Amino acid sequence: MSWRVLEPFRLGPLALRNRIVFAPITTQYAAERGAVSDRLIAHYERRAEGGVGLVIVEATCVDQVGQVFFNQLGIYADEHVSGLRDLAVAIKRHGSAAAIQLHHGGRMAKMALTSAQPVGPSALAAPGGVLPRELTAAEIKATVQTFVEAAVRAQEAGFGGVEIHGAHGYLVDQFISPAVNHREDAYGGSVENRARLLIEILCGIKAAAGLGFPVWVRLNAREYGVDGGTTLEDALEVARMAEAVGAFAVHVSAYGPSSPTNRTTAVFQPAVIEDLASAVKDAVTVPVIAVGRITPQAAESMIVAEKADLIAMGKALLADPDIPRKLEADREDRILPCIVCMHCRDVLYSPVPAGISCQVNPRLGCDHEAPCSETTSPKKVLVIGGGPAGMVAAMTAAERGHRVALWEQDAALGGQLLAAAIPPHKDRIRGFVSYCAEQLARTGVTVELEHEATVEAIVSCGMDEVILACGPIETMPDIPGIASAGAVKATAVLNGLEKVGKRVVIVGGELVGCETAEYLAERGRSVVVVRRGPEMATRVGPSLRQFFLERLRQKGVTLLPGVRYVRASPDHLTVEMAGEIVDLPVDTLVYATGFVADTRLYCALHDRVASVRIIGDCATPRGIGEAVREGYAAGCTV
Predict the structure, then answer these.
(1) Residue 371 and residue 111: Cα distance in Å, rounded?
(2) Chain region(s) in the chain for CATH 3.20.20.70
(3) Catalytic: 632?
């Protein structure tokens, strides 16, 4: 296939080998005081090596008072230039153009990091934030200068251009948004006044760095769920103003609690804000960069339909940095799909600096470490279990040259991922299972389905190495009468193995219980979810949790946290709530109260085979990411 998205493109003086852009995604990989680290360089070099046309380095702090993230990359001092130069060289070494995003958090800045009160256009706190101090006109001029000086540093470091972060609720966007900017001077009121900070930054950079130095802006084309927020009409006017003063491009994004970029859809939908990019494309003549969950197929469609000129991919290239190379080689089938779990984003909410990681790509954040090497002594390896840990362990060991067999007791690969992919908004998990199955076939793993792994069968096959990834044991809650009440497992319900009546009570209010509730509510059941703890779905990441709980309420699911279980019977679950005994009528009682490790097979084998190790949920029940990383580590160390 001839991909238009792979065509060369020019962004002013920047010659791009294709139209694919690595979007600026904060990593928390920088060192002390925002210095460039080896880990950061390796991360960006790997994306360049994968074949993107342009790399836009993450939100880079222009002023310490505007720092939002732990280990945020800095460009606010001359001391940063040397490391940034190394970063730019590493990106360009592989044929990608290098740009960097200039960022000031404004009222979103964290006092724990800055030791200063945040600043903003007006004294209005962000939701859950602290009250910022309103910038004076003189301080606004000084802020403009911090962006200008940062751009000059970027130019000195060898970056081919800079992007002004004017989106996502940060300082420049705070000035643009009428919901946040209540000023009555030259920087507030009309769209022209609210955009004045951005325009002064653009003009200042062009004056200092030269008219030919590419500078552009990332804008919210719309604010969703923000009362009095930026409208598309506002954004189009700002985009035209930016073009008029010499912006080389407009990078179109969106913002707000109900933004499509912040939510998932019941069935995966790519290019969730392509309509916004198309509207901006119609309003300006400079190149438009589109973003927002864009798959290669959607990217091609947008380029062909002239809805955008460049396609920015973020999470997709975290999951698989080789997307451009694979498209060039006509190996679209080998692209590791992002499952849109938002884990990489949720890490940024952590109270401790961890650096972003990926649920499906165990190498993210580890590109500075040596990858798995080909084995010099091939072994016969048996993997028990076809869930994520087992599949990744098997394919990794086989890629290194080992002879690998995988036994799975069920009729299909996937393990717990099969049930996890069934609830609404989770269908992208199926793509990961399909990818793993294809990789197993490609690497020559012998897969045997419906194969029971008994101790004698394992011992008799004479393997050099046995890797156990056979999953956990689902636990039944300790409620008097629950066994005789006919309670069924949530995973069995999702897999279609149990019939469910009209009235359902689900015991357990974490992810599995709440997802099962949504699944049943969509099928016309009356659903109540109960749990002992004070809140529901606490282990769902902050990017999706409120959206998830909102969906449950909209679909009529009753959520009852903080209960004490009294007893279960075939037609009631009796609980105590706020000191009152309540009988909840039930046709089907479902439990989703967690899992425990299953080490029985490991204990039976550890002194009967040459080498055995245990990974994934059968060792310790956790999430997809932990299973994938343990599977990869096991495959690398066989």
Answers:
(1) 38
(2) 4-349
(3) no
> What's the CA gap between 432 and 252, in Å, rounded?
29
Provide the CATH topology of domain 4-349: TIM Barrel (3.20.20)
DSSP H helical segments within 125-273, as ranges? Answer: 137-156, 171-176, 191-194, 196-209, 232-244
Q: What predicted TM-score, i.e. pTM, was given to this entire model? A: 0.96
pLDDT tens digits along 270-323: 999 999 999 999 999 999 999 999 999 999 999 999 999 999 999 999 999 999
> Residue 340 in contact with residue 293, Cβ under 8 Å?
yes
Alpha carbon distance 39, 48 (integer Å): 14
**Residue range(s) of every CATH 3.50.50.60 domain in the chain:** 488-594
The CA distance from 494 to 48, in Å, is 41
CATH 3.40.50.720 domain locations along the chain:
380-472+597-637
| Mean pLDDT value of segment 262-270 | 90
Return all residues near 354 (Cβ < 8 A) that are at least 6 apart. 28, 347
Which residue type occupies 136? T
Residues pairing with 300 in the sheet: none
Helices 624-637, 388-399: axis angle to 10 degrees equals 30
Show the DSSP H helices in 129-195 as ranges: 137-156, 171-176, 191-194
- Degrees, nearest 5: CA angle 556-560-565: 135
Span 78-133, pLDDT tens digits: 999 999 999 999 999 999 999 999 999 999 999 999 999 999 999 999 998 999 99
C-alpha 441, offset from chain centre:
28
- The active-site residue, picked from 29, 44, 76, 170, is 170
Token pair listed for 225 = 């769920």
The CATH topology of domain 488-594 is FAD/NAD(P)-binding domain (3.50.50)
Query: What's the distance, CA 207 to chain centroid?
Result: 37
Residue partners of 53: CB distance under 8 A and separation at least 6: 8, 9, 16, 17, 18, 19, 20, 21, 96, 97, 310, 324
Residue in 7, 63, 92, 74 with CA at minimum distance from that of residue 34: 74
117, 39 in Cβ contact below 8 A?
no
Q: Is residue 534 within 8 Å of residue 450, measured between CB atoms?
A: no
Nearest Cα to 400, choosing from 637, 618, 230, 601?
637
The total of other beta-carbon atoms located within 10 Å of residue 190's CB is 11
Backbone angles phi, psi at 509, to 5 degrees: -115, 30
φ, ψ (nearest 5 deg) of residue 196: -60, -40
Give the separation between CA 529 and CA 511, rounded to whole angstroms: 11
| Domain 380-472+597-637, second-level architecture | 3-Layer(aba) Sandwich (3.40)
In angstroms, the CA 449 to CA 430 distance is 18
Q: List the alpha helices (DSSP H) in 93-220.
A: 111-114, 137-156, 171-176, 191-194, 196-209
Residues 6 or more apart whose CB falls under 8 angstroms from that of 11 comprise 54, 97, 161, 214, 248, 249, 287, 310
Number of residues that make up the chain: 638
Q: Which amino acid is at 249?
A: A
Question: Helix or strand or coil: residue 28?
Answer: coil
Q: What is the pLDDT of residues 562-606, one digit of tens each?
A: 999 999 999 999 999 999 999 999 999 999 999 999 999 999 998
